[in-house]
Amino acid sequence: MRVCSLLLPHHPVTPLRSLKAPPAWQLLANLAVPGNAGRAYGALSGDRNPIHLSALTSRLFGFSRPIAHAMYLVARLEAELANAGYVAKPYPAVFETEFKRPTPLPAKLQAVVSPAAQPALQCAVLTSTGEKDVILGRLYSK
Questions:
Q1: Which stretch of DSSP H or E encloses residue 97?
Q2: Is 82 a residue whose pLDDT tops 70?
Q3: C-alpha closest to that of 77 among 40, 37, 30
Q4: Which pLDDT score is estimated for 79?
Q5: At what angle are helices 70-83 and 37-45 packed, to 10 degrees?
Q6: For a pLDDT cut of 70, what percent of the chain falls above it?
Q7: What is the pLDDT of residues 109-133, one digit of tens each?
Q8: What pLDDT is recorded for position 16?
Q9: How many other β-carbons are positioned within 10 Å of the β-carbon of residue 46?
Q10: Distance of CA 68 to the CA centre of its chain
Q11: DSSP secondary structure letter of residue 104
């Protein structure tokens, strides 16, 4: 499921799911996502989906705990890329992301990047052990 394509109409590039794993991920940051992140992001964005609010409401949909908003995780990834100086130049740019699996809250995650990946900068949010993809992304200039 594609979460977002920002700034431009679709640009024909390889779909994220068909990309080969990058040669090596480089850690940008360890992310601590608090248990109230779903409620806080829901209040900010207006997306108060029950799966993000509490254990009680998320159980109605088959989750044992509330799960993180995918767009919240994408925003955290984008912020870590910017903090590390990874920006697409020249503009306009496209940041594509793909949601891979739900993240029960609270959670410890990793924001990673593969600077060697070309022509697009590949990035991801991984589980705390780095074994599973949560969000896959790429940033490139048009």
A1: strand 93-99
A2: yes
A3: 30
A4: 95
A5: 90
A6: 84
A7: 999 999 777 778 899 999 999 999 9
A8: 59
A9: 7
A10: 10
A11: B
Do residues 113 and 24 touch, judged by C-beta distance below 8 A? no
Q: Scanning the structure block, which residue is given the tokens 């996502």?
A: 33
* Structure token pair of residue 65: 């705990």
Distance of CA 113 to the CA centre of its chain: 12
**Euclidean distance between CA atoms 32 and 6, whole angstroms:** 25
Q: Check if the beta carbon of residue 97 is closer than 8 Å to that of residue 129.
A: no
Residue at token pair 């640009």: 11
What's the rounded Cα separation, in Å, for the pair 142 and 128?
32
pTM of the model: 0.83
Tell me if 75 sits within 8 A of 109, measured CB to CB.
no
Quick one: tokens of 81? 């890329």
138 CB contacts (<8 Å, ≥6 apart)?
16, 19, 95, 96, 117, 120, 121, 122, 123
Question: What is the chain's length?
Answer: 142
